[in-house]
Amino acid sequence: MKSIIFYIIVLLCNLNAINPKPFEDKRITKAPILKSLVFPGLGELSIGKKNHAKFFGGLEITLWLLVAESMQSKKMSRSNMISYAAIHAGASLIGKEDQFAIDVGNYLSAEEYNNEQQRMRLASRVYSSDGYNWEWDSQENQERYWNYIRKHARANKIGMFAIGGMVVNRIVSIINVSYLNRQNKATPLLKFQPFDINDSIKASKLILFINF
């Protein structure tokens, strides 16, 4: 960081003291940055920027609410998928991967699915008869089942979006609190330090620091 030094007064007074320590400006503390990393807005609040703190903190709370809502929606839609597939297709989704739940929605029966995989010579994708059987009682119920799949996928996307937003919110808050800290440092600073005119006279100089 650069400093522009202005010499305001030279030869203020005679000094008998030798090498007094100059008043030094403190460096920017890392505490506000760490606080913004933990929870955006805390860093701004710690340096007295309440409006900035409200913005970043409010956004963070909103994103947390989105995550909580998406998790609840995923849980409910998954529960509906399990019960609906069990009642109308005889399928057991408990403990199965998501791809199996999608395949149940795409095909009327396990037999239809396996036959298509074999025609495409994808034997590794064929389901065994042990716990992977299903057959829909109607195409209408199969389509209704897809509504739960869509809700589950949409809730998952919202949750991922909110998590990504939290990362961005922290990055922007850290940048913001660093900038505000630099602004706070840009206040004039006066300090005294020895200034030798010649061998017989000792005086002091008053220096004005402007940091930016």
Structural summary, described in words:
This protein is α+β, with helices and mostly antiparallel strands and 212 residues long. The protein has a domain at 29-90 and 135-187. The chain has helices at 31-38, 42-46, 50-89, 98-106, 110-119, 139-185, and strands at 3-10, 189-196, 202-211. Strands 1-3-2 form a 3-stranded antiparallel beta sheet, with no helix packed on it. Strand 2 (189-196) and strand 3 form a beta hairpin. Helix 1 packs antiparallel against helix 6, helix 3 runs antiparallel to helix 6 and helix 4 packs across helix 6 (139-185). The longest helix has 47 residues, at 139-185. It is elongated and about 75 Å long. The model is unreliable at 1-27 (pLDDT under 50).
Write down how many β-strands occur, each being a DSSP E stretch of 2 or more residues: 3
Number of helices: 6
Q: Provide the low-confidence segments as ranges.
A: 1-27
Helix content: 55-70%
Distance between the termini: 7 Å
Give the topology string: H per helix, E per strand. Answer: EHHHHHHEE
Shape: elongated
Main beta sheet: strand number and arrangement?
3 strands, antiparallel
Q: What is the structural class?
A: alpha+beta
Strand order of the largest sheet: 1-3-2
Rounded to the nearest angstrom, the radius of gyration is 34 Å
Strand content: 5-15%
Question: Oligomeric state of the chains?
Answer: single chain
The average pLDDT score comes to 82
